Q: What sequence folds into this?
């Protein structure tokens, strides 16, 4: 288990992280979420012992991290970096060796990961020949090849195409099912909603909201409506029936105003637009985050 206890980190007058506490369990995909500059990367770097907190403590299995514990950790940093002139396979085996993972079992795992991400034919080609997406998948392999117990992923989907994104999501889910403790950092709430069982939202270095995804959804109740439509819904803004409207091409997610029902909204829409879908849902994680940050008097970057 990973325990973060009341950690704080200042850089001069900047409060990067302020009194943050949480714990992540084995087999859990833990979402450390927030906008750019919220303090996510600083938090991960403190967990990794790259930088030290000004106060507070971080425990792995009930004790503070030691140098030997780092072999149990896999880390995909936000800033990627592989030696460009080295063959991809050799590079990955070298990095696994730095974590004391060598031999036939490591080589076998390497081929399995390369095959899973359609990179096996690139094994003996230099890293510089890989596309950006391929290099990103190779970097992910580098973070898990030594079979770590704890895996920290900082914005793992940045720059990936949809096919590669789905492949990486499946890999992360499988690692969670195998009992790994995974801490996943992102500012894209839709990704976290599909992956994470526990959510910790941070903004401006402080906790905004935390809990299981199911618990957070239930806490905010079924007061959102998804509408797919043809036409214009601009008239909703001043209707008094909705509080917030999150717009996408050809569909919207709306929050009902206090005392208003889905029936009130449906009556208003009748005859004004062509409704193709009308569904009462729990608010999306994106919508919950926006509401909570506004309630706290902060702004989302």
A:
């Amino acid at each position: 288990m990973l325990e973060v206890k009341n950690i704080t980190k200042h850089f001069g007058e900047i409060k990067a992280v302020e009194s943050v506490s949480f714990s992540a369990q084995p087999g859990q995909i833990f979402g450390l979420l927030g906008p750019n500059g919220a303090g996510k990367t600083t938090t991960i770097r403190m967990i990794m012992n790259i930088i030290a907190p000004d106060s507070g403590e971080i425990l792995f299995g009930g004790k503070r991290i030691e140098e030997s514990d780092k072999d149990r950790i896999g880390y995909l940093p936000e800033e990627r970096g592989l030696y460009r002139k080295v063959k991809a396979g050799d590079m990955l085996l070298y990095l696994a060796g730095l974590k004391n993972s060598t031999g036939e079992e490591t080589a076998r795992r390497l081929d399995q990961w390369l095959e899973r991400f359609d990179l096996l034919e690139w094994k003996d080609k230099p890293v510089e020949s890989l596309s950006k997406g391929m290099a990103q998948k190779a970097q992910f392999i580098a973070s898990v090849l030594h079979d770590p117990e704890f895996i920290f992923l900082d914005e793992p989907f940045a720059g990936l195409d949809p096919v590669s994104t789905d492949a990486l999501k499946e890999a992360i889910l499988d690692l969670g099912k195998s009992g790994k403790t995974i801490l996943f950092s992102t500012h894209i709430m839709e990704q976290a909603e599909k992956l994470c069982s526990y959510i910790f939202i941070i903004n401006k270095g402080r906790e905004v909201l935390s809990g299981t995804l199911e618990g957070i959804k239930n806490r905010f109740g079924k007061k959102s409506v998804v509408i797919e439509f043809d036409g214009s819904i601009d008239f909703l803004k001043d209707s008094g029936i909705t509080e917030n409207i999150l717009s996408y091409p050809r569909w919207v997610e709306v929050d009902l105003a206090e005392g208003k029902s889905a029936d009130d909204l449906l009556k208003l829409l009748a005859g004004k637009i062509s409704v193709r879908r009308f569904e009462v849902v729990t608010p999306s994680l994106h919508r919950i985050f926006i509401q909570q940050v506004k309630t706290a008097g902060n702004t989302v970057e």
